[in-house]
Amino acid sequence: MEGEGVNLFQGAITDVAGIAVGHHTESARPTGCTVVLCAQGATAGVDVRGAAPGTRETDLLEPDNLVEQVHAVLLSGGSAFGLDAASGVMRWLDEHGHGLAVGPARVPIVPAAVLFDLLVGDGRIRPDADAGYAACEAASGNAPAQGCVGAGAGAVVGKLFGLARAMKGGIGSASIRVDGITVAALVAVNAVGDVIDVDGRPIAGARTPDGRGLVGATAALLAGAEAARPMAAAATTIGVVATDALLTKTQANQLAALAHHGLARAVDPLTPQDGDTLFALATGTTGRAGAPAALGILAAEAVARAVRRAVRAAGGLADPPLPSARDLGTA
To answer: Which residues pair with 237 in a beta bridge?
Structure first.
């Protein structure tokens, strides 16, 4: 098991200097949003994959576009409706004097990505601008809560054989420090596939027909099991990787792309239904330029650890019945 003999939840994205994280979780149903604040500005990149991503302000992160830094990244439940929460993050940043100087004005730059959680509870309840503002109010440099909070509140994993055999997902974080440079990740895990440990053992995912164990989705498919008809746009894994190294905008985009390898290590299988978006932030607070290849290796590992921590920290739901890894004793 990852971290055997140590605290499984040690290390978080807030270990990167200049990063704060805040959650807002709705009380009326399992959904919410999570903000990663870098209010003084951080060089940013993004890598968007999958069949149905829901995003905002990702085009400006292309290396040939003007804006070099962002002031926050928002992760939200609520599918495309959840993008409204970014307006609340902008409002908070504006009130606190943060943003891109454009003549006499300051414009906060807030890219965002959403996951689909509308099947869990009343889908008419979604994070809005007030939710994004509340997440900023809650933000701090302390290690953020993990599991069924913020953007991970309504996340579900193991949907390959239908929602009735799925399990609770969540949000997780991890950090790695090597040679004085920190690389960290925060990931909201809402995948079609299983979440697997370093040895390939499923931690959370598709359950057996009686609901009491894990079937191992890939193994079941190879044995001839028939997958459920996938629902378009019903799965998304979104997250942020961050480092205190100095990076150019091009390198930040490369870091986001390399970080996706961590999903392949911790989610099996990856499917076309997943719409996966990873942002990269570089605060540069060490004043040292990182080697992009080495940082990419660390980012992928941080993402894989964050994915596993998300389901290990999650609690189960009674309605709809979605047990957690802790409920099944597989954590």
So the answer is: 189
Specify the residue for token string 């993050």: 89
Distance from C-alpha of 34 to C-alpha of 16, rounded to nearest angstrom: 17
Question: Token match 């807002």: residue?
Answer: 24
pLDDT in tens, 196-243: 999 999 999 999 999 999 999 899 989 988 877 666 557 889 999 999
Q: Measured between alpha carbons, how far is residue 33 from residues 19, 21, 313 in Å?
A: 17, 11, 17
**Which tokens go with 236?**
């998304």
Give the pair of three-digit tokens for residue 105.
């004005």
3-state class (DSSP) for residue 290: coil
Q: Is residue 143 part of a domain?
A: yes
pLDDT of 1 above 80? no
- Asked if residue 104 lies in contact with residue 64, where contact means CB atoms within 8 angstroms, the answer is no
1 in a domain, yes or no?
Answer: no
Single-letter residue type at 53: P
**In the chain, how many H helices and how many E strands?**
7, 16
Q: Give the chain's domain count.
A: 1
The answer to the question of residue 5 being in a domain is no
